[in-house]
């Protein structure tokens, strides 16, 4: 479900990821709630996928709502490259 | 060798037609198709099922010859699952998975359908009935996942009466429309039925 160059944001609770999805959908931003890729361990097993074109807008909305993801990855070939978050 | 012409058909129809033809094909199957997504999807589908694929240009499109990998050149090549054993059918009777809060149920159902894509084994047929058809209509979050499943040979079928009831007949976005006869017959002849 993750295309080349897509961002995958992982949150630390199901409630946060659902709230983030609701907020981003209300802003009509093109995002998709997806199962977290198995390579990325996630407690709640869900993640939000978005493309480069909407990245700044998505992250601005999340920051404003205090809903920044715990970790952010970018799909690069077969790998997920960590962009932000705890190591 | 049997010929199957799927030129001009939109995805996932070429894969579905090939899948059906392989279930009954005696010997190799030659598929005439358009370049691009149909060619790639049929090739991937056939190789995934263990068929050897030979490609040749044909009248502006392509001809893919599929030969059973287990016995190349054999005269009686069957798909890995004999038709007599019946298909694996998934019956999705709701847009929610499990009992509990509606919001959580919807999220779990979406998560489930997308997760199917990660599995090596997928159902042969998925029937969507009642609120399940909300998953196949425009605006659903799983259209992309259902299209990808379709390209792997999964038949995605929605109950026409249900689409009609929810006024979604015009906005079906994944798979095709079916009727109760097909649903009932398919359930009765299935190898296994998974009811969600």
Count of helical regions of chain A: 2
Percent helix among the residues of chain A?
25-40%
- In quaternary terms, these chains amount to heterodimer
Cα(first) to Cα(last) distance of chain B is 40 Å
Report low-confidence residues of chain B grouped into runs of 5 or more.
71-83
Round the Cα radius of gyration of chain A to an integer and report it: 12 Å
Strand content of chain B: 15-25%
Characterize the structure shown.
The complex is a heterodimer of chains A (87) and B (196). Chain A is α+β, with helices and mostly antiparallel strands and 87 residues long. Chain A has a single domain, classed as Alpha-Beta Plaits (2-Layer Sandwich), CATH 3.30.70. Chain A is 26% helix and 31% strand. Chain A has two helices and five strands. In chain A, strands 2-3-1-4-5 form a five-stranded antiparallel beta sheet, covered by helices on one side. In chain A, a hairpin with a 2-residue loop joins β4 and β5. The relative contact order of chain A is 0.29. By secondary structure, chain B is α/β, with parallel strands linked by helices. Chain B folds into two domains: 67 residues, TusA-like domain (Translation Initiation Factor IF3, 2-Layer Sandwich), CATH 3.30.110.40; 110 residues, DsrEFH-like (Hypothetical Protein Ychn, Chain: A, 3-Layer(aba) Sandwich). Chain B is built from six helices and nine strands, in the order βαβαβββαβαβαβαβ. Chain B has a five-stranded parallel beta sheet with strand order 8-7-6-5-9. In chain B, α1 packs parallel to α2. The relative contact order of chain B is 0.15.
Concise synopsis of the structure shown:
Chain A is built from 2 helices and 5 strands, in the order βαββαββ.
